[in-house]
Structure formats: C-alpha cells, structure tokens
C-alpha cells in the first residue's frame, strides 16, 4: 500500500527529504556557514517541489509554437515564475548572510554561534 504511491510521487519525497536534511542542518549545526548551507538546501527543496507540482505530463512550456493556442497543451507558468523569483531572492539573502558572517568573523574570530553569543553577553549587548 505504501510502496504503490511512492514511485509516482518520488520527486515530492526527494524534496521532503532534502527539506528535512536542510532543516536538521539549520537546527543542529553551530557553525554559521553550515547553517547558511542548510538554509540553501531547504530553499532548493522548495524549488524542486514547486517545479514538480507545476509539471504536467505530456504538456510543453507555455510558448505558442505552430499556432497551438489551446490551454490544455501547456503547463501552468506560475510555478515556474515562482521558482525563478525564489532563486533570485535566495541568492540575495545568501549574499547578505555571507557578508554578515564575514563581519562577525572579523570581529569575533570565530564562526561558532555559541561562542559569539557568549562573547556578546560578556560585552553586555
């Protein structure tokens, strides 16, 4: 019963596993770079899930070719647009997080979040 639904939904399962790996990495790691990698894995899992859900077997990209204008011939373009927009936003967020991580490293000479937190408490911030 469980195995009969696994193969048709393999992409969704892979996306959920990737999201779980990224989430666990985000929660369990103390290194800031590893946390950023975990967040990027989670982003990728969401984009994979949206791309899989937006694809319809037997349909093509929504570009009118050879005069075919029936809606049933094309996939829904909204998930693809969401994925592209999400990728642009996640690259910007990753760049911001990395720049803040560099600033923290220059100030505290460590990437360990617990060590940075304890030094902040000592400074009274």
TrEMBL record:
Signal peptide (residue range):
none
Where this protein primarily resides, as one coarse class? membrane
The record's subcellular locations are: Cell membrane
Q: What is the membrane topology here?
A: Multi-pass membrane protein
* Species in which this protein is naturally found: Schaedlerella arabinosiphila
Q: Name one GO cellular component term.
A: plasma membrane
| Family per record | Belongs to the CPA3 antiporters (TC 2.A.63) subunit C family.
Enumerate the InterPro entries for this protein. CPA3_antiporter_subunitC, NUOK/Mnh_C1-like
State what protein this is by name.
Cation:proton antiporter
Annotated membrane-spanning segments are 6-28, 37-56, 76-98
State the superkingdom.
Answer: Bacteria
Pfam families attached to this UniProt entry: Oxidored_q2 (PF00420)
Record keywords, A-Z: Cell membrane, Membrane, Transmembrane, Transmembrane helix
